[in-house]
Amino acid sequence: MPADSLAQLAARLQAFAEARDWGRFHAPKNLAAALVVEAGELLEPFQWLTEAESRALSAEQTEAVALEMADVLLYLVQLGNQLGVDVVDAAWRKLAINEGRFPVPGSDEAR
Amino acid sequence: MPADSLAQLAARLQAFAEARDWGRFHAPKNLAAALVVEAGELLEPFQWLTEAESRALSAEQTEAVALEMADVLLYLVQLGNQLGVDVVDAAWRKLAINEGRFPVPGSDEAR
Amino acid sequence: MPADSLAQLAARLQAFAEARDWGRFHAPKNLAAALVVEAGELLEPFQWLTEAESRALSAEQTEAVALEMADVLLYLVQLGNQLGVDVVDAAWRKLAINEGRFPVPGSDEAR
Amino acid sequence: MPADSLAQLAARLQAFAEARDWGRFHAPKNLAAALVVEAGELLEPFQWLTEAESRALSAEQTEAVALEMADVLLYLVQLGNQLGVDVVDAAWRKLAINEGRFPVPGSDEAR
User: Fold this and answer.
1) A64 — alpha (psi -120 to 50), left (phi > 0) or beta?
2) What is the pTM of this model?
3) pLDDT digits over B34-50, tens only?
4) What's the CA gap between C13 and C9, in Å, rounded?
5) Which residues of C are less than 8 Å from A48 in CB distance?
6) B78, B81, D49, D97 — which has fewest CB within 10 A?
7) By the CB < 8 Å criterion, does D59 face chain C?
């Protein structure tokens, strides 16, 4: 199973929640709340670090951060499941908007 | 280009930031801060809704939420770029941990 | 010492940080990051509760929430210390702005 | 009216919400969600600043930050109203806990 397939992750999370009868908890409002809680946990190890220190994490620190990033992604995918949103597709659309908003300095678009 | 490839999104974001010389801003600490800011914006449209209302968004509301979800994912991928973390791979590892932690009621694992 | 004096709390926090030589960590950026981390911890116990359940916490749950609220206030006051901002004064100003923005229905201001 | 009295702010906020019939929205869960949203907005102006820049805000930037701090405090006080929690009292209790947890280096408590 290719690790990069978010569609497969979405299907597995759907089955995971259904097997545990968690659908009643997984209102989009609740998933969005859980997501910001995890985003806070992701920021926590960085809060007293300098920027330079945050660029030089140990392997152990990086793995801890990776698992917090995972929690954010898992809720993002579950929220997508509930809302019928393909978050990767949305990200490509948003990136196109951002590219229009912030043209590369010196490029034709920036003139 | 398949829309579900986060690896391609990661490459495009890397080029996007480099073209704008934003690498100096993109310390992991700053990206984690930007991510929680976006997670707050994602929660905002839900804050006064009931759970039931959050399950019945209009198409317009859903698209606005999708673009906030996109912002979270874009920072998650950029943070992965900076830390050398494959966030989808981390999500699969975390999901395996969660499956061990919350066995399905009535299953062999739960006994 | 009257418990409601934030000015006294601010002075005590200043002394607390100085005694531990924490001033170098307490850049406004870092305090704002720590504050949102605590705000996430405050939301955490509510994330899967219904609104009705959140209105009916036990005494023990309420005390746990109170200590998370305290953490948010402690960082808010420390941020005020660093920026020279009196947060209670700012709250009165913001409340006056909000009262203008959301007139009472049926009142003279709402017409 | 002394600006530092949170008790007076709490009473005014209670009247403000009642006049607008907002009590039905103000479940503790919703107020905690609104609070973290505001905490994210408070972090936003700092996200790309260096720590040094965050210590040297202009008067205009400081005022904008002060009003975001105000929003956090207003929700903290409203949450206290709903839960029957005196947040300043809780902050003194939490500070006492923290003083025990982080003794001053070289002090009797640290030995």
Assistant:
1) alpha
2) 0.93
3) 999 999 999 999 999 99
4) 6
5) 25, 30, 34
6) D97
7) no
Q: Is the Cβ of C41 closer than 8 Å to some Cβ of chain D?
A: no
Q: Which two tokens stand for residue D52?
A: 């040094």
- Measured N-to-C along each axis, helices B59-83 and A28-43 cross at an angle, to the nearest 10 degrees, of 20
**A15 interfaces chain B, CB cutoff of 8 Å:** no
Tell me if D43 and B36 make a contact (CB, 8 A cut-off). yes
- Whether D43 sits inside 8 A of B30 (CB atoms) is no
Non-local CB neighbours of B52 within 8 Å, separated by 6+ positions: A27
Q: D41 — contact with chain C (CB < 8 Å)?
A: no
Nearest to C33 among B33, B40, B51 (CB): B33
SS (H, E, C) D11-72: HHHHHHHHHCCCCCCCCHHHHHHHHHHHHHHHHHHHCCCCHHHHCCCCHHHHHHHHHHHHHH
Asked if D27 reaches chain C (Cβ–Cβ under 8 Å), the answer is: yes
Which residue does chain B place closest to D32, by CA atoms? B47
pLDDT in 10s for each residue of chain D, 111 residues: 444 578 899 999 999 999 999 999 999 999 999 999 999 999 999 999 999 999 999 999 999 999 999 999 999 999 999 999 999 999 999 999 998 998 887 776 544
CA distances from B100 to A26, B86, B109, D84 (A): 20, 22, 8, 39
Task: Report how many Cβ contacts below 8 Å link chain C to chain D.
Answer: 201
What is the set of domains in chain B, with CATH numbers? Answer: 6-83 (1.10.287.1080)
